[in-house]
Amino acid sequence: MSDEYEHKLEAKSDYTGDASSVSTPDIDAVPDAELPDQELYHSHSWWTTYVFSQDAKYIGIQYALTAIGTGLLGLVLSWLMRIQLAWPGLGWLEPSSYYQFVTMHGMIMVVYLLTALFLGGFGNLLIPLMCGARDMAFPYVNMLSYWAFVVAVVVLLASFFVPGGPTGAGWTLYPPQAITAGTPGYNGGIILMLISLILFVAGFTMGGLNYIITVLQLRARGMTLMRLPLTIWGIFTATVLAMFAFPALLVGCLMMTLDSLLGTSFFMPAMVSLGETLTHEGGSPILFQHLFWFFGHPEVYIVALPAFGIVSDLLSVHSRKTIFGYRMMVWAIVGIGALSFFVWAHHMYVSGMNPWFGFFFATTTLIIAVPTAIKVYNWILTLWRGNIVLSLPMLFSLGFIVTFLNGGLTGLFLGNVTVDVPLSDTYFVVAHFHMVMGIAPILVVFGAIYHWYPLVTGRMMNETLGKVHFWITFIGSYAIYFPMHYQGFVGVPRRYYEIYDSPYIDVSTLLLNKFITIAVLIVGAAQLLFLYNLFASARLGKKAEKNPWKANSLEWQTPQMPPEHGNWGKELPKVYRWPYDFSVPGAKEDYIPQTQPPSEIIGAKVEKT
Amino acid sequence: MSKKKSIFQLLTEKPWEQDQIEADNDHQGQTVNLSKQKLGLRTLMAASTVLFSLFIVAYSDRMLVHDWRNMPEPWLLWFNTGILVLSSLVFHQTVKYAKNDLFDKTKNGLYFIGFLAYSFLIGQLIVWYQLMNTGFYATSNVANAFFYLFTTIHGLHIIGGIYFWGKTTSKFIKRSLKKEEINNLIDICAVYWHFLLAVWLVLFGLMLSS
């Protein structure tokens, strides 16, 4: 396909490209483009525009909507589980359904909602726009990635309709129980779950390839890596983690599929089931746990790092201040990413491993708290003396900081072997991981949707509805998870269908269970408000002006808003600064977009930090 | 093109300082001087290396259990390994032909490589057939299961390679691309071929030595 965009070269032909040539009359001059403009695929029919789209923006929206749709199912499942826990006398659920719902809720929320939404949704939407590219590096592969995800979701949901229903093995899918009689869905649902995960990994690898290459190779002129918004740093690092972590899941899934279908003994030990000796022999269930958590722990950061990045940008834009310690933030993201491969066995303290092994992993777990704490301090210092605007994205970002801090602190408890052993498999763990990788990233998702909604639709979301949504979600989730910490301390075990008349369970636990369930129902219902806002505002919302938040990063500087196919019109943007020049002394406005050439802001001087 | 920087230099830049701003304005927007296909292949090879490494870790861990029974190594596996080595050598030569604009030699080289790749796959299937005929099923011992698993995953990688070899060969014959572009693609296929040879040598060596 021929190149439809011509280059207009502003720079003089005799320009030397010498960094010291500030004294040349034209201070805006940059060297000629050495790289050809990207060739774009142009769709010709409705199908290739809206369904099998190769435009990253559409793919991002498709990913986001599919992920949110699947996530809603996860939300409904949590309602059903909670009603069972609060009023066990109703006989609302069968024990098997309870375990199936627990499993599907966990897997859907972690993999099919959060991973797909942050990397597939926000990654596709924001990477090309924020880097100043016309599209992803391999648009066709990108499209395949989305459709592989759709097939994965369909296979996952199909497991509700096979005999025996979906798997009830818990989201960790530990063998031998996951594929042994007695566990719901041990011969049908689990296979579909494993196939679905294999498809997800395959699809993700195709998407991840795009994200990495686009960030590395297709940026606008002047956009060095250290001028990228932290959102991109977060998504990029998370993608690298995912490329290295998902193979572990793939290996585990493949070998368990063979154990279940062919009767091999990779993970299955010799055992007696229902009075019969199984043919398996010698397999190692612990091996699966290592493989699973070698994926599972980086997975936590695959979800958290994009959230870290996005929230940094939201805080900076909505407090009109430079992000505090940009380089430190980048290092923390990269450092957390690297360290996340060395902490996996802290999920396995009670698996009977060597105590020295536990000692090692407790130490690495505490070390990873250091860069994480740096990030929290830097967010707070960004807010310090900022011009804080309590817009919706800011509210959600503030909610994130508090929630993440809360979940992070309980993580310090659980990271220590001696504290973890009594708390293991209690509601304390449930409360911890829901705070840190459930509520915290979801708050960022909401903040990000309110923030970038005008970029996608050209309209603003309703502020009042959004505030109601925020307060119910924020206060509601504390009403849900604070009591769970207490329940964990008094020893209520997780994964129990019903607590019967156990003598050691206090009456307060039963009352709290009812209280939590009511909060869950209310918070869940509040999300309908959000959904209404999301869809209705696309038609009824106030028209957004260009760059409504007065942000600096490139995605708001497109010639049209919402950006058109190819993003940048005839000419690719040129970048003259990083995206954090807010409230620069001497500048006319309190923000200087990345594309604003130096000649237009003479007199503005960035303070040394 | 921008100067090569170590990742440490890169991460310590101060993008808000005047000197750095001026240097950064000259940046062309590309991190490494490689085509996107080449860098893409490297990324995939890295992910694939992790995948095979984890298989190897799982193999080494499972090997220690008492029920492990070693599998015989059919001589045909040596023959298949030879085919793979030969195809890598031919590819190495073909890249040189392509660089020197020798159209016919390159074309024949590409055809021969395809033939060798298919022969390898057929050879592997015959090995499977022989083993199953002599009673070495995946279920009879986990060592056999690992063998079938490794050859399948490696074979799937080869099939992926054949797909891209096919696309490249047809583009080469139709002469639909510029010379640098098609040479870039041939180069990429060659790198992938060498990678799969290396993976196979490691897997085969592992199975031989255990």
Structural features, described:
The complex is a heterodimer of chains A (609) and B (210). Chain A has 609 residues and is an all-alpha fold. Chain A is 58% helix and 1% strand. Among the domains of chain A are: 53-222, Up-down Bundle (Cytochrome C Oxidase, Chain A); 545-609, no CATH class. Chain A is built from 14 helices and two strands. Chain A has a two-stranded antiparallel sheet. In chain A, helix 3 (95-131) packs parallel to helix 5 (189-217), helix 5 packs antiparallel against helix 6 and helix 7 runs parallel beside helix 9. Chain B is built from seven helices and no strands. In chain B, helix 5 (103-133) packs antiparallel against helix 6 (142-174). Chain B starts with 6 loop residues before the first helix and ends with a helix.
Write a compact overview of the structure shown.
Chain A is mostly helical and 609 residues long. Chain A is built from 14 helices and 2 strands; from the N terminus they run H-H-H-H-H-H-E-E-H-H-H-H-H-H-H-H. Chain A is globular, with a radius of gyration of 25 Å.
Predict the CATH topology of the largest domain in chain B.
Four Helix Bundle (Hemerythrin (Met), subunit A)
Main beta-sheet annotation of chain A:
2 strands, antiparallel
Relative strand content of chain B: under 5%
- Proportion of residues in helical segments of chain A: 55-70%
Alpha-carbon distance between the two ends of chain A: 47 Å
For the record, the CATH class of the domain at 53-222 in chain A is Mainly Alpha
- CATH homologous superfamily annotation of the domain at 53-222 in chain A: Cytochrome c oxidase-like, subunit I domain
Specify which chain pair forms the largest interface: A-B, 68 and 48 residues
Query: What's the CATH topology label of the domain at 53-222 in chain A?
Result: Cytochrome C Oxidase, Chain A
